[in-house]
Amino acid sequence: MINLSKYLEPGEVVTATYQPILLSQGWTIFWGSLAWALALFLVWPLINQGQWGLIGLGLLIIVGSYWLLRARLLWRGTLLLLTEKRLIDINRLGLFKEVVSQVAYVNLEDVNWTKPGLAAQLLNYGTVAVSYSHGTIKLNFSHIKNPKELATKIISQQNSV
Q1: What are the Cα distances from residue 87, in Å, to 113, 147, 155?
Q2: What is the tens place of the pLDDT at every residue in 80-105?
Q3: What are the two backbone dihedrals, phi and then psi, of residue 143, each rounded to the nearest 5 degrees?
Q4: Inter-residue contact 25 to 93 (CB < 8 Å)
Q5: Which residue segment(s) compose the domain that 153 sits in?
């Protein structure tokens, strides 16, 4: 888990944390798993090819491991924090790139949620959109499990401020 204290003001308390579902990294996990599956399936034919076969096997394992570790890092580093004063959206976009957006509850104007598509309906995930600054700026929290619950919590936090 990431260290949350660097995103909080002194004395600020986190009331809830939300993380995207693992499906948000679906393609990355697919390609990493495919590389590993190929490495396991082709282990004997590649070993029989000699040095070049071993290099190919090593590359499949390295590439598969890279994609799987990258998926885990991006998934674990992306969070939405609800505090008693504000929303904090932490997006991990790469190994060295992180985008943090925050908005105070008093500045919120609109909160809505959607569940786009059949998979979202069946797996109960969706996007929560928060508008502020006269509707010109919108934060989207995608692939959130139970988006209706999150929208309700944001509105109740806003009403308690």
Answers
A1: 16, 15, 11
A2: 999 998 999 998 888 889 899 889 88
A3: 60, 40
A4: no
A5: 14-21+78-160
